[in-house]
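Quick one: structure for this chain?
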Amino acid sequence: MTLKTIDAGVLRIAYEDHGPEDGWPCILGHGFPYDVHAYEEVAPILAAAGGRLVVPYLRGFGPTRFLSSDTPRSGEQAALGADLVALMDALGIEQAILGGYDWGGRAACVVSALRPERVAALVSGNSYNIQAIARAMEPAAPAEEAALWYQYYFHNERGRMGLTKDRRGIARLLWRQWSPAWAFDEATFERTAEAFYGPDFVDVVIHSYRHRFGLAEGDGSYADVERRLATQPPIRVPAITVDGDSDGVNFGTAHHARKFLGAHEHRVFAGAGHNLPQERPADWALAVLDARAMALAGGAAPLVIRDARPDELEAVGRMMVAVYSGLEGFPKPEAQPVYYKALANIGEEAAKAGARLLVALEADGIAGAVVFPSRMSEHGSGATAGDDQNAGGFGFLAAEPAARGRGVAKALVERCIDLGRDAGKTRIVVHATEAMTTARAILAARGFERTPALDVREGPMPVFGYRFAL
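Got it. Here's what it folds into:
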């Protein structure tokens, strides 16, 4: 093992490098309050299997340092994901098996959800670790709330002072509470505790536990990533998720299975607490090797978005008619035959306007579609949107009913946002009716603002305008 450092993004990251440099790449992240020693017994197993294991100290921990004093000491989830991608870029690793638990698992989940092309497979302690910050104030069961005492402690300045004064005391208590069956010795604890005394540790930790409850502003450079994470995107890469049956802070995550759309297996380590790889190194290493086998067997569930082909137009039209006629409260075909004729012939309608008809494809075929116009005046969006030369937009968003809950509509919205940016637009303008509850929820979560000045009426039906700044 060699401890190295590399400049990556806003950090100079310290990391352990195990195994052959040309081995299959694997990056594993630790949590709070832990460090790289969590993987000291995992590393030789993976190296012996031909892997190159990279284990970084996360921002704020150990020798990892910020490159600039001006960089916010953020502990938000988007920052952790960005650090992981930056490390991969700096090391020249195009794709890797990612894994971790707690903060490290969160970083791995963020990259797996938003950058699946960089991830061969995922091993995640406590499953889907992406925070739903919009729901953070919803109370949990009393036992769960009690286990989160340290987070509420960190919400006020008393907690900041307590962490500054006694990092070892807080961490030792959490180790014991979270892993009641783990008989760690003082030497094991002390090796890790040294990582809590870097200059940015307290600031990053406090920010992390305040931001996840909406009690602290994030780093503005990650704002768009946080908006994407707010939609709770699914994970499509092969994944093995793990819980410990004696975890004192997380009481089981088997119910997260619906968030994993590729090959997925959930495991429970008997007698293990929260620090899964350090308590059960052989089991954790086996999970990594099995996740790699899933990837080699083609266990991903990719979602491909591209322009529709001529031979697909009829099927897209049928799907559009089925989706819109099935919306509760939306006009039926007999009430608006002209509109439904346009839906059935959506390819022709898009071609007339010089727009792009995009389709989302899963293994079973067309899972969704959307129209992206070249000019808003061609989109027929009404109000003042059609005169806005700096605005892009999209319409006729639809997801196959069987594909709902798989992130199809979210991915189509994201592609339209990217196309708007690529076209040099400064904002995206869209419209939705009251019946389009799922679409409106996606828009709200992604950060689209309700803009009454853009509202129009289609006969008796109000149509609500939304704007998104690019």
